[in-house]
Model the fold of this input.
Amino acid sequence: MNSEMARLADYFVVVGYDLDKRGGSEGQGRILQRFPEKDWEDNPFPQGIELFCQPNGWQLVPEREPPSFFVSVLTDINSERHYCACFTFWEGLDNPQLQKAETSEVDEDEVPGLIQPAQVFAPKSLVLVSRLDHTEVFRNCLGLIYTVHVDSLSVPLETVIGNLLTCVIPTAGGSQRTITLGAGDRQVIQTPINDSLPVSGSSVAHLFRQLGIVNVLYLFCAALTEHKILFLSRSYQRLTDACRGLLAIMFPLKYSFTYVPILPGKLLEVLSTPTPFIIGVNSFFRSETQELLDVIIADLDGGTVTVPECVHISLLPDPLLQQTQTALSMVLDPELETADHAFPPSSTQPSSLKIQDKEIRAVFLWLFAQLFHGYRWCLHIIRIHPEPVIRFHKAAFLGQRALTEDDFLMKVLDGMAFAGFISERGPPYRPTDLFDDLIANQVERIRQEECYPHKVMNHVKELAEQLFKNENPYPAVAMHKVQRPVESPGHGDPKNLTIFPLLDDVTVQLFIDHAAAKLKGAPPVVKAELKGMVPSGPPLGDIVDRHGHVLANSARRLEVVRNCITYIFDNKMLEAKKLMPAVLRALKGRAARVCLTQELNQHVLQNRAVLDDQQFDYIVRMMNCTLQDCSHMDEHGIAAALLPLVTAFCRKLGAGITQFAYSCVQDHMVWTNMQFWEAMFYSDVQNHIRALYLEADEGAQPSSESVPAGGQELLGALELASEQSRLWPALSKEQQSERVQKEESTVFSQAIHYANRMSYLLLPLDTSKNRLLNRTGIGDVESVSNSYVTNSIAGSMAESYDTESGFEDAESSDVANSVVRFINRFVDKVCNESGVTNEHLKALHTMIPDIVQMHIETLDAVHRESKRLPPIQKPKLLRPVLLLGEEFVMDGMRVHLLADGREEATGAMGGPPLLPAEGAIFLTTYRLIFKGTPHDPLVGEQVVTRSFPIASLTKEKRISVTMPMDQYIQEGLQLRSCTFQLLKIAFDEEVASDLAEVFRKHMHKLRYPQHVQGTFAFTVGQCGKTLVEHKTKDKNQSIKTLSKNLVKSAKRTIGRQYVTRKKYTPPTWENRGSLQSEPDEDDISVSEELDPSSLTLSSTIRSSDRQTMSNVVERACCRDYQRLGLGTLSNSLTRSKNEPFRISTVNRMYTVCRSYPGLLIVPQSIPDSTIQRISRCYRQNRFPVVCWRNSRTKAVLLRSAGLHAKGVVGFFKSPNASSAGPSQTDSTSLEQEKYMQAIISSMPSYSEPSGRNTLSGFTSTHMSTSESSDKLRQPKIGALMKQVMGGKDEVPGTFSRGALGQRARVISLSQPRVSGKARKSPGGKWGSIRGSGRLSAYNPDVGNRLASKESPQPNGGPSEALFFRQQRAYLYIIGDKTQLKGGKQDSFQQWEVVPIEVCDVRQVKNSFKKLMKACVPSSSTPDPSMSFHRCLEDSEWMCLVHKVLQVSVLVVELLDTGSSVMVSLEDGWDVTTQVVSLVQLLSDPYYRTFDGFRLLVEKEWLSFGHRFSHRGAQTLASQSSGFTPVFLQFLDCVHQIHLQFPMEFEFSQYYLKFLAYHYVSNRFRTFLLDSDYERIELGVLYEEKGERKNPQVCKSVWDYIDRLNKKTPIFFNYMFSPEDEEVLRPYSFVSNLKVWDFYTEETLSEGPSYDWELVQRGRQERLAEEVPSKPDTSTPKSHRHIIWPCYDSRIRAVPDAITKLLQDLQRLEAELGLPPEKWKETWDKIKATQRSEARLESRTSFNSSLLMSSNLSHQRRSQGVYLQESGVGSSINLSMDCEASSSVPPVAGRPSTSTLYSQFQSTESENRSFEGILYKRGALLKPWKPRWFVLDKTKHQLRYYESRQDKECTGVIELAEVESVIPGTPTMGAPKHIPEKGFFDLKTTKRVYNFCAQDSLNAQLWMDSIQSCLSDA
Done:
């Protein structure tokens, strides 16, 4: 049978329902007859046809169904597809169920209720099996057979079937054949012109209609990237069509996995196969497909595609995807383009389905041409005879297309379909088709048109025409004539009872035999194959340039590379060294790397390959740098180009020993990548085979070794192969075998060559170390280029390779074996693919171990010799300066400091690249220090220092680093510190790895000592490096015994307390009232029980300990309490009864609360015994104590921990709950209430006898001052509350917008007198506190008494209703939302709980970690989601700062309006401390001075037990809890306030940074322990002043600051100019906050500046070095020097006038030999004289005083803002009345200062001797204008300005020209309200000026002043 002709049908089968095998519910089918009965030799009969006829299973049905037709596809073992056309109809038969019922009694499983029909219908199928896909022809043929049977036509069925089976038609060639089956029918079959193009009918168009564009594209990409696809539909024919359509759009790729368009239900388990598939299943089985996890399901009926979560479909690369979608939508929906047109064209209907189908396919053809263009340039032809063998160089293709990153293309090129594509289309001599033409001739057109959709459409239409023509070559088809059944057979029709007859097989067989005999006799049809050379199309090269992937400034970079190489070969080493860093940077670009390989190749060709040591070193460096950025795929062929070079360049090491460059460039992944070696090998083989057939060119190409660079060569190879293939049949046998043998031996010799090459690059120089293979595990890099493995299999295969190759124990197995194995595997693969004979292969396998062994021997000699080379000169290690008492633990180890994510140091932001730097790392008892010099020779002179205290180390991580300069991978460490520093270091190769390990251990030991006493603050100055606990000296003896006694007595007391608690029964409810009224009887028995114990204690304390106790009294806190008037400790702790508070000593032995200080402020009326009981309700026993009192409103601030859970409920229980006997909790809650009541009673506002409140404590003077200030800014407390409590939506209307408008001020309510002038105040009393409308404390609208609805009246007075609204609570308790669940607020209590959300410690910890990563990233990423601001936002640090500030501002407001506040959050030592300290700082100016701030920190943070050691993870015990910077957060808040109020703080920002640094540095003991109790126990709380052994070592950070502050004004804020009693209310929104520069700045020149002595000493050393040996007179020396952002300290470099003046003073004092004066004294003196001068001057001149003594208007005073000047001046008012049109509106009626600059104008008084506003008359007919005049004695002129703010003067009157000043008279247009005496005239030589002042007095003053100037002159 001829290959060009084929049978239309191979088999005809009749399949029926199998009545015998009807077991259970499922029926079965069986083959009743098949023709021919004998299998064809070329086409065996397919199995399982009966399953495919009824895919849903064989079933009997009660009613006849219409006949159906569909085509199934079966694939045989040779992956040939068989099309089974199934025509099914139903035949009636008597119900077998009924017969069965008669024979046997009714079965149990029968349902008696169902009436069985008498007749049922069984399916019968006529099946036609063919290898051709002519669906319509099959439908007609089978329909005809059925018609003949049903309509009982005269033609015998045997004849029809015989004719059908013997019909032969051509497979392709575009012919037209008419066939008839002998029943009066006629059909025309058209065959496609070219059978390589698929025939799709209209199936593609239908597929797009059913699923839509995007869905089909998903399926298309999924099929190409080898995913599993399942189609669902109710129609079988649609399933087949959809599958056919999907395959059609994949052309030119062919689908090679499981393909079953209709899968029978019985075979559903096929769906769980691991390989990809395209399968169709009837929707009937939808439920079974639900649990498939990795299958993409396309539902054709519903139009959906479902992609499971675990499946990731790689889509087309970007511009292509967009273009394809656009083109498809233009085909499918042409109206879309014109949908918006005002005059749409009359009709834009899409083409007919058949045409549309071709247009869609044309779009996909166009897409593949885009994807694959240029693929022929990446083919390697490695054999031409006997068969062409072709390989595809994937890496080169991706590299040249610049698509290496593209997921989709990678997967497609690795897929089976593409492998088939290459083997089918690779050969250069074969028939070509439409796709070949497209790739060869249309690429240019496609590229130019791709951005113009309409041009693309035209191209698509042309292609569609060709596709359509291919399928329908003859437009006018002759009519088909096929009979159909006369009518659809009715149910009652007797005809339909005839059963399809058994056919006579002999008759049919005769037909078949007869036809076969006829064929044998016929002459064979020989059709010449149209083979031809396949054109390659345009090469790939230029495409990349169009995409612009070449670096912009590449020309300059290439120049640098070329110059450097020239310098190296010309031995100009110094020049080369300078260029080196630039070259290494340039080599990041591809063009530069290609350039390098070409340049070096030139030098090899000139025989300049033998180098000296330094040249060799540089060349190797450049090669390493080039390879370092190549991926292991080597897509740009860089490694391939270097391969011949590394075996060429060498240096002589000694007696006949040569070291080649390859021994120094082995450390790159590419050498261990099997695919790289294959591609290289094939490329070389191709060149050699080409040379074989180019006898003429022989010798012309000596370097055919190198990779084909130009297109010419490659073109040659494929063309040549094509020519050879054409000639091959004409050659004689001998010639043929000779050529085959020549080619084979060429490949064989290359294989030997490559075995050598691979051993060069894989065997390390020191073969004792298995560095190379160990690291990469070559075993896994198996070539996957042409072998298909699905993911699940891949894993197991890789494992098996691994085990066979034995890399898993690479340590023990020696290097040689692993290299031999690797090379063997390579050789096996390439030789099998390129047809090397078996003998040759065996020979290779015996040679390889010898090659490797020989190479190892030569390497040993090289290694020995290379060790003898003198080492390269390395920079000497610089030693850092140490503090007194700081000692080295480990001496310097040579390391490289690498760049991290901060770009300033690498030069990325401009400036020199300071990093990477080479130097040493030192570990001392206090710090970790790196000191070294940059690698870049241009900045090699600078010293780079980075250090941080060892105690601040938060994370240490090992890293491995490839240095750009060396070829070694080095181990390194990344060390992160919470002082916002990061050391990323790589150990130099000279540092042994065990030494690095020792370093790590020491570091850990120092970071986490066993005990606090192991920290630097304690060990400093102790001799010996051992950190052993010393015996305690006697001096601390007393404290030791005290602490022992303390502990003993504490135990005793605790025991006692327990006993007393049992005795005590609280008073019952009835007595309760009386108890409350008589506080004296309140000392309940507990206290008496306690007394004896305290007595015994005091008798045991020796005198020295008593002294310690008195120390407690002297503690700073007590001084502060006395300052605040909160109690005194006079004569033996007696209390003066009239004070509301007292200092309690109940905790003096730290028995009540371990973490509180010894002395506490409590209400006068509460006895100590009650305190002990109350304390148990609070966490950690931290009960509420007073820590601050507002001196004006007398409101107090309290702090405590949150309540215990049971305490909460007890606290808020309604007191009258009936209970038989009051329980323990009840009594404590009563006492707690009493405690709260006592606090409320202490407030003067409450103490009025009636219990009503008129806030009499407020003075009216206060009210009037608050008037003005409140107008300016009185925040809305209600709104504040709302923000703080986070009630955004749930707040009811009580917070109306005008809740507390500008005028409806809280304070003014308290004093009805203020508004009295407006109307009678209603009684002047508050409404009862027990208002009925009290809301529960847990409502989100707690603040509603603070923010009631009423809006102010139009006249600005408070509205009536304000006076009736509910009163503020006397006491607000700020509590934690989560803790306050379930309690109920009692309506009689006078306190109120404000629930807020508190950031817990974990949040702070995590936020800080993210903040550190944001400010100091470990590596730079281009990823925009990792930018600094994004990371900062993710850290939420600013939000936390905002929350703390917000709560603090709320508390400040409440205190300022006269309510007391108790802050009771978490354990009372983190957030509570932050809030309480901030509140005091904002409310009380004292805390904004040096002394005050120190006191604040000592009191609130240290005494009240913030757990510094625990939160700072300072010891081994607290290591696990991690570092939580609560104190740092507080300092950040202070910094934010400082920024907003720069004139309110005595200390500078530097002071805050200093504390932030040293609170984690452990240099001082101040911040070391967790509470006063622990400090006393260790004896560090009170160190005797005189006993310091070493005055240099400061133990307290405060002493250090004091001492430093005396020497230098570094901590002082020159702008300090405080308001009296100013309460600060900072803005707290995140937008108002700034990132603290403490987090981001660093000074690489000297390290952190917070260890002042070090920096000073470092600077002196540097200055000493800079003094030149002899003066250099030749050039004038500039005083300017360049400041680099991260290298120099900017703050020090920016000039600052005051510092400069102070320095000048010091210098003068030194020169004059005066004793130097302390800077502070100088400063104070200047300030004093300035003030007095200002007072004196104000009589004579209009001058505003210096800023320091100024009174600024009550506004935010912030830096750099020019404050508005009012017309209101000092005591002499020169300007108009306020209403007059002075140039700037006055501010709040208070005097203010001139610009901020006045602080630097110490001589201001002389040069502006008089100034003010005068009206000056303009020239003729011009009006009078007010101008600002300045009389300047020094310059002797009268200048005038448009307004006071102006810097440029409008005019000048020279006093020298003035002749006289005389009183004037008003003239026309003069201001009306000025008295006559206000006018005066000024007569100059040129003209007369007319002036008028505000009044006569001013006029006189001006005249006098001018006169005096004149007379002075």
